[in-house]
Automatic annotation (TrEMBL):
The lineage of its organism: Bacteria, Pseudomonadati, Pseudomonadota, Betaproteobacteria, Burkholderiales. It is a multi-pass membrane protein. The chain crosses the membrane at residues 12-39, 51-70. Coiled coil: none annotated. The keyword Electron transport does not apply. InterPro entries: Bac_export_3. This is Flagellar biosynthetic protein FliQ.
Length: 88
């Protein structure tokens, strides 16, 4: 295996991981920031007020984007496995 092939495989791995985690992390962070702003404005510092909406958001994102995430991960895995004979 050559160094450029290993770097390309590592790059594909990181981009796939970023692409798969971006919807979940992005929307959860957005909900957290909105809830934090609401807490600052209303001065209500309840811990469950931040935890429950983020948990519900994460569950909804996984339900809605889960099939797409699984397809992307399957495509990456198939591409990786079919590329093995060409590596040596």
């Amino acid at each position: 295996m050559h160094a450029d092939l290993a770097l390309k495989m590592m790059s594909d791995l990181f981009w796939t991981g970023l692409l798969l985690s971006l919807p979940l992390l992005g929307l959860t962070m957005l909900v957290g920031v909105v809830i934090s702003v609401i807490q600052v404005v209303t001065q209500v510092q309840e811990m469950s007020l931040t935890f429950v909406p983020k948990l519900v958001t994460a569950a909804l994102v996984l339900i809605l984007a889960g099939p797409w995430m699984l397809r992307k991960l399957t495509q990456y895995t198939v591409q990786l496995w079919t590329g093995i004979p060409g590596m040596f």
